[in-house]
Amino acid sequence: MGKLNFRVVIFALAFVFGVVFSIPSLVQSDSGKKITLGLDLQGGLHMLLGIKTEEAIKSYIKSLASTAKFELDKKDIVIDNITFDMESVSFEVLDEDEVQNALTLLQETLKEDKVTLQKNRITITLPQLQIQKVTQKAITQAVETIRNRLNQFGLAEPTVAKQGKDKILVEVPGIKTEEDKNRIKKLIAKTAHLQLMAVDEGKAARANVMSELEAKKYGDIILTDVKNPNEKYLLRAIPILDGSMLTDAKSVYDKNGQPMITFELNGEGAKIFAKFTEKAAPTRARLAIVLDKKVYSAPHINERIGGGRGQITGGFTINEANDVAIALRSGALLAPVYVMEERSIGPSLGKDSIIASSIALISGFALVFLFMIFYYGMAGMIADIALIANLFLIIAIMSLFGATLTLPGMAGIVLTVGMAVDANVIINERIRELLHEGKSVAKAIEDGYSNAFTAIWDANVTTLIASTLLFFYGTGAIKGFAVTMTIGILASMLTAILGTHGIYQMVLPKIKKEKLGFWFGIKGVK
Amino acid sequence: MELFKYKDPIQLMAKAKYFGLLSLIVVVSSWAIVFVKGFNYGIDFAGGTLIQVKYEKKAPLKDIRAALSKVKKYKNASVTNFGSEQEVVIRTKSSSTVVGKDVGKEIASILKDTGKVEIRRVDMVGPKIGGELREKGIKATLFAILGILIYISFRFEWRFALASVIALVHDVSIAFGAIALFQVPFNLDILAAILTILGYSLNDTIIVFDRIREGIEKAKNVILGDIIDESVTKTLSRTTLTSLTTFFVVLVLYLFGGEILKGFSFTLLVGVVVGTYSSIFIASPILMWLGFSVKDYKQMLAEKKKREIEKDKLRNQFEQGVV
After folding, report:
1. For burial by CB atoms within 10 Å, which of A131, A214, B116, B129 has the most?
2. Which of residues 299-358 of A touch B (CB under 8 A)?
3. Cβ A407–B261 below 8 Å, yes or no?
4. How do residues A256-294 score in pLDDT, each as one tens digit?
5. Which DSSP symbol is given to B260?
6. Which residues of B touch A175 (CB under 8 A)?
7. Which CATH architecture has domain B13-40+130-292?
8. A193-320 CATH choice from 3.30.1360.200, 3.30.950.10, 3.30.930.10, 3.40.640.10
9. Residue B130: enclosing H or E segment and its boundaries?
10. Which residue of A47, A176, A342 to mutate against B (max B Cβ within 10 Å)?
């Protein structure tokens, strides 16, 4: 063996580094940093969700109305004729003497909103800044809520992240069955908006014949029963309280063995609830339990209920009850979400893709490996050693960064195998050329490397420009292609240029001019 | 083994106009094909829904179409085999925005009487996202070309940059023509393939240009055609070999990589062949036609060197404290 040199030492270190850090990924060990398989390889659900932020603003305006009514009720100021639009709510104060009091009271409580008065009509308007704030909050809250729900569902490592200005990326790997996928989608979609609403007992008998418009005029809305869509309820539009005052929700079995959900309210909620039941008890008025705009039950109130506990019954299966409880616990979505893009891959297709792309990788690698030896002799073998090091380095670097390997990513590795030997082809051709010119072996190698360098450098930089742009503008699985290409090119600079150079320097004393056929695959050099 | 032994330069530039003409014809017909047939935009760019299903036995295409035609939403769905007789892809232009509803489940229930069926993949892209992806794709390609143009101008000279970009446009045009001719579904992976072709073809071109640059610096002869002939001949073996190894692996990917990668590897196959051709026969003649002058370039190099020597001299004087 020839002498060690800095190039070969660096190469050896890189090789060892590559092997050591790719082991956890290759043997799929439980410890150590590994490459994550993309959804297209392991199966799973990818969704890009949009948010109907205008709904969040609508419900914020409604909650403003609730607050206003609650505050005014405390002072016994009666209001009526409530109307809403996209940025304001307005109502009439019936007692004209109280108008000024009401205005001052509301201006004090609702500092961030604009409260104005026209005759005896008070209007609460949302300033632009407040609208933006509500919108932003709806988005961040949706991201967190969906993340909470998926975490509680108990699947491995779901990703929920805000993307762009107003989109949510949801990725759930490792879904085994179609049924699980459906449950997950339903769980995400659930607005889980719990409302406790008073039945408008005075007009309740006409619920089935009244039009929505007429109901609106009375400040009521019509909702249907969850099981029987023909059964309608006329409810006061402003809810008594909603899910934001919820502290806990559990799925349990009732005494008949039917699954149901129990919930607990926070202190404020419990107070409001107690006060309402106290007022409703003498007339045995009904209280509707409304979830996502469907009435689950509307029991008569017989007595004041303190403690702030309630229950939702309505013929759930145990899975449904579980999912609803999860959704209630992790909070309502301030605004409903909708699908902009969805990709789901079954686990069996992922497996097939892994097998197909692995076959391509192995056979592509074998072809190039053998061709290089066949064409260049030992010089080809040296290039092959660099190629092997390159593959290990790609896997090691991806493992260390916890990068995701996708199907296009596999294609990128296959392509790298074809292109990484390019540097060695260029160098070997230069060396052959110089040998034909009659240069000594040592001189041919040194000059071969220095002559080839600028070409390899410029070529790699331009390829990097293309792959970097692909990384920044590519989406999803395509990003994986850019990642493996980029890492492959960078690693090839180390292995194919520096590494092979070092090996040549080390074995140089062994290379005899008479044996150029063996070493470089050429004949006829004097 | 040695396939290409360098003897005398191959007289390529003398025949350059024939290659130019050939390329012009192919490029123009490619654009004609794109214009007449149009791209078969996949759902990534056009929006819509794609469902891949697998049967245990041969998929009953007729029954599937009949079952789907009973449902309004899937009336105009296209049904084609995908890779094997058991697998089928169903494609519609519509997409749903409801999170809770599952297209896979819906299709499974529509197809339940056609045999035992497994839903393997559902891709659904809304119209807004399709537009965004298209915009991003065009941006990526344009920026890539621009970046490359700037880099080569900086490393070589503007005519080199322009010549390589024309060669790139040539390659991408022909690749587009092939995609349109065979109606390969144009999805994000095709875009990735196009960008890879950009990088790859340029790689080849730069290796040749690098030789030309080197040739100019060394040669006493100032006839560009001769220098190009010699450089192309000297890099011919490298160009062919690298193209071969790359072609091998892409072919393997095409044959064994699975149906999903078919469009991607097909585009690359075309790109590798065309990219190799263009860097040998097109990029260098364009350099000639752009009026590149060896004399001027040598003068520029000489001046650059002179400036550097002057700078060194000044630095030396400065260090020695003469100034």
Report:
1. B129
2. 337-346, 348-349, 352-353, 356-357
3. yes
4. 888 888 888 888 888 888 888 888 888 888 888 888 888
5. G
6. none
7. Up-down Bundle (1.20)
8. 3.30.1360.200
9. helix B127-155
10. A342
